[in-house]
Amino acid sequence: MPSESDPLAERFWFSAEGRRLAGTLFPPFLLRRRWFAGKARGVEEVWVADAFRLGPREAGLRLLLLQVRFAAGETALFSLPVRLAGEAAGPGLAEGDRIGPLSPSSPQSLWEATGDPLFARALLDLLAEEQERLGPQGILRGRRGPLLAELAAAKELPKDSRLLGREQSNSSLLLGSRLFFKLYRKIEGGPNPDVEVHERLSGVLGFPHLPRYGGRLDYEPQSGPSILLGLLTEAVPHRADAWTLALGAVSEWIRQAGAASPQADSPQEELSHPDWGLLGRRTAEFHLAMAQPTDDPAFRPEPLAQEEVPLFCEEALGLLRRSFGMPHGPPEVPLGLEEERLARLFARIEERLRGILRLPTGLMKIRVHGDYHLGQVLATEDDFVLIDFEGEPERSLAERRRKTLALRDVAGMVRSFHYAALAPLFLQGDAREGRLGRLAAAEGWRRRATRSFLEGYFATADRAPFLPTTPTERVALLDFFVLEKAVYEVGYERNNRPAWVEIPLRGIEELLESGRESEENGNP
After folding, report:
1. φ, ψ dihedrals at 270, nearest 5°
2. Do 97 and 89 meet the contact criterion of CB atoms below 8 Å apart?
3. Which of 6, 114, 343, 509 is deepest in the core (most CB within 10 A)?
4. Does the pTM exceed 0.85?
5. Is residue 323 within 8 Å of residue 483, measured between CB atoms?
6. Residues pairing with 404 in the sheet
């Protein structure tokens, strides 16, 4: 039996030696991980908040919950599967998964075990058998959904696993070919929108255009709300995500336009796939499902009150000031060409955003996707499947669960088409020669794809209670959310990919140049 001085004992991490080891091993390791949200905030201290044994004791597997305190004093909780093993990386592990030796003379090291097949096997058993694990500070609880129950009853639980995409904000495991598990890395208490939407749409309503719900992994602390650690869903066979298909489609469109010298938006050969009008229909069907009457207060549609309309404007104006780095408005004497361009746009954006104050009230607010773009859609052979209902990871759970207007999702997809159209030119370091022609062709593709998507959306949503009743009001509201999204993108690109800031700025300038009912807005 391990003692409290043995790291295989859950209580080891609460001893003086365990706290010292956690404070030494984990900070440098976390700073190397893509999923660790907090690299720029300065890590002050790391300790283990709870620990659970997974699988047989001799496997050396633990699921640790790490509490991190940052320089400003705030704290955040992160999940970390670990395994105690030798110096060589085992199956499913990479050298970068090594956390470090337990001591300078120890022959064993602690490894992150997310990709370890033993972790996947223990995890699946925990969910399929609805096991519980008691830790020093709480309970780890597995719950199975209808899909997992069916596979377990048929004795078809997968035996192999594969870690997908290490460079993500969460970690994903493919279990066999049927199951997909998402391990949330930065976690917080309260209902998680990702599992809520899957349980309601897949489990309750049987909505077919998202992965079937398989199960969930929860942590229940001694005090405070339950915390979702992981979600199990169906692994959907697909050609690619819609972003990848869009990049291929726009690149082919540009190639055809250059080869035949046709009109910029009319290559000789019509591209039959993907069908963006179908994606618009599926998006509308998702919103219509979310708008169905229910006794569940988390999903019950609510009317937009008169006093809420100014809040949309206030939030957008605050976002404008943050994204443009102008907390007090544009400076009298801008510094540099970029600041001068932003300053020229600032007042015009502000005026357009205030236009929402003239919109009618009475629209229904519903739960939406919250982070909707082409990368959140899988393309099957002949259809689309919506995924990732977690919402924007930087927002709190309360913000991500907040009901809002459905056109916010639609605006996210409109902006995603704009990015897909211009990304090939930026990703490939497009040469100056012929650049204007390629830009024109890319814009032609974007207009057609966006128009097709919006026509499909508005034809299906039709007179839904979450849409304004007149075309003019629909255009105005959609333009507001598109502009707000582009403003957000300016801030993101300035902080992360300065060379890409031209994409949202072009989108903003196009919107400001017209107050029209354009093909960009699908003439709803």
Report:
1. -70, 130
2. yes
3. 114
4. yes
5. no
6. 366
- With a pLDDT cut of 90, the percent of the chain lying above it is 68
Q: Which amino acid belongs to residue 147?
A: L
Residue 153 phi/psi, 5-degree rounding, is -65, -35
Phi, psi of 483 (to 5 degrees): -65, -45
Q: One-letter amino acid identity for 391?
A: G
171 beta partners:
183
232: three-class secondary structure by DSSP: strand
Q: What are phi and psi of 102, to 5 degrees?
A: -70, -25
66: Cβ contacts below 8 Å, ≥ 6 apart: 22, 26, 30, 46, 47, 48, 49, 77, 78, 79, 80
Residue 64, C-beta contacts closer than 8 angstroms, at least 6 positions apart: 13, 48, 50, 51, 79, 80, 81, 82
Report the C-alpha gap between 91 and 87 in whole angstroms: 13
Please say whether the beta carbons of 466 and 363 come within 8 A: yes
The 10s digit of each residue's pLDDT in 120-160 is 999 999 999 999 999 999 999 999 999 999 999 999 999 99
The residues, ordered by sequence, that sit 6+ positions from 7 with a Cβ below 8 Å of its Cβ are 13, 18, 21, 84, 102, 110
Q: Residue 274, preceding bond cis, omega within 30 degrees?
A: yes
| Distances in whole angstroms, Cα of residue 164 to Cα of each of 94, 240, 521 | 13, 14, 36
**For residue 108, which amino acid is it?**
Q
Provide the CB-side half-sphere exposure for 426 (13 A, CA).
Answer: 16
> What angle (nearest 5°) sits at the alpha carbon of residue 363, between those of residues 361 and 369?
130
Cα distances from 302 to residues 37, 141, 199, 390, 458, in angstroms, run 33, 33, 21, 21, 21
Amino acid letter, residue 447 = R
Instruction: Give the separation between CA 36 and CA 38, rounded to whole angstroms.
Output: 6
- Residue 31, Cα to own-chain centre: how many angstroms? 21
Contact 179, 148 (CB under 8 A): yes
Ranges in the chain, pLDDT < 70: 1-8, 166-167, 258-273, 427-434, 515-524
Give the burial class of 330: count Cβ atoms within 10 A of its Cβ; 0-12 exposed, 13-18 middle, 19 or more buried.
Answer: middle
- At 59, list the tokens: 């496997």
Q: What are the percentages of helix, strand and coil residues in the chain, rounded to 5?
A: 45, 20, 35
Query: Which amino acid appears at position 371 of this protein?
Result: D
Distance from C-alpha of 255 to C-alpha of 250, rounded to nearest angstrom: 8
Return d(Cα 483, Cα 491) in angstroms, integer: 13
Q: Check: CB of residue 369 under 8 Å from CB of residue 193.
A: no
**Rounded to 5°, angle at Cα 136 from 131 and 137:** 90
Q: Residue 228's closest CA among 183, 169, 175, 261?
A: 183
Token pair 């994606």: residue: 279
